[in-house]
Amino acid sequence: MIRLALPLALLWVGCAAAAQQDAIIVSPLDELEERAEDGFGGALSLKDEEFQTFEQEQRVTDAEAGFVRVLDKTTGRVETLELQSGETRASGRLQVAMIECRYPEENPSSDAFVQLRISEQGRPGLLYDGWMIASSPALAALDHHRYDVWAIRCRLPGGVQTPEVQAGLQSPRPPARP
Questions:
Q1: CA torsion angle 138 142 146 149 (round to 10)
Q2: pTM above threshold 0.70
Q3: Rg (Cα) of the chain, in Å, rounded?
Q4: Cα–Cα nearest to 95, from 65, 73, 70, 130
Q5: In degrees, to the nearest 5, what angle opens at C-alpha 139 toward C-alphas 133 and 144?
Q6: CA 130, 134, 135, 138: dihedral to nearest 10 degrees?
Q7: To 5 degrees, how large is the angle CA 122–CA 123–CA 125?
């Protein structure tokens, strides 16, 4: 009885709401698009100023080398690799190849864009092939059960060091572990 009463009650409420409106029009989508082109109550165009875009174009410069940090989640070992463009180095079971490293011209210490290819020894194929952004490590992260890899910064030309390195907040080369 309750199963029959509930749908009837909902139907009655729906009919009462429809009776209060002038009309309910059900139209196929094609007709709505035609009406929108003809105009029903005003133009349906959106202006550019109604949108906020966060797209930003930056001029970047290639660096000869970059820094990448590797975390072995099993052992807790953290290693910072300094890689030349085109160089491949091993860290644990990973083979990390840096294709190129780029930094913004206006503010070299602000960010780094590093193109990496990462594979695991003994397994065919690549684990990661793409760009990592130092300021947004989660944007394009390596998805691996044991290792985390993220870009740190590019090495600036002529031995120029970032303010962070000069202040001692970051080291250009990590100290050797015993």
A1: -80
A2: no
A3: 29
A4: 70
A5: 100
A6: 50
A7: 140
Q: Is 12 exposed, middle or buried (CB count within 10 Å of its CB: 0-12, 13-18, 19+)? A: exposed
Q: What is the pLDDT of residues 94-131, one digit of tens each?
A: 999 999 999 888 877 788 999 999 999 989 999 999 99
Q: 157: closest CA among 120, 106, 103?
A: 103
Name the residue among 96, 136, 91 with its Cα closest to residue 119.
Answer: 96
Tokens of 107: 């503010």
What is the DSSP track for 68-123? EEEEETTT--EEEEEEETT-EEEETTEEEEEEEEEEESS-TTT--EEEEEEEETTS
Cβ atoms of 142 and 93 within 8 Å: the answer is: no
Strand 88-91 to strand 78-84: parallel, antiparallel, or no bridges (unpaired)?
unpaired
Range 29-34, long-range pairs (CB < 8 A, 24+ positions): none
pLDDT tens string 52-71: 555 567 788 888 999 999 99
Q: What does the block give as tokens for 17?
A: 């709401």
Distance CA 64, CA 174 (A): 19
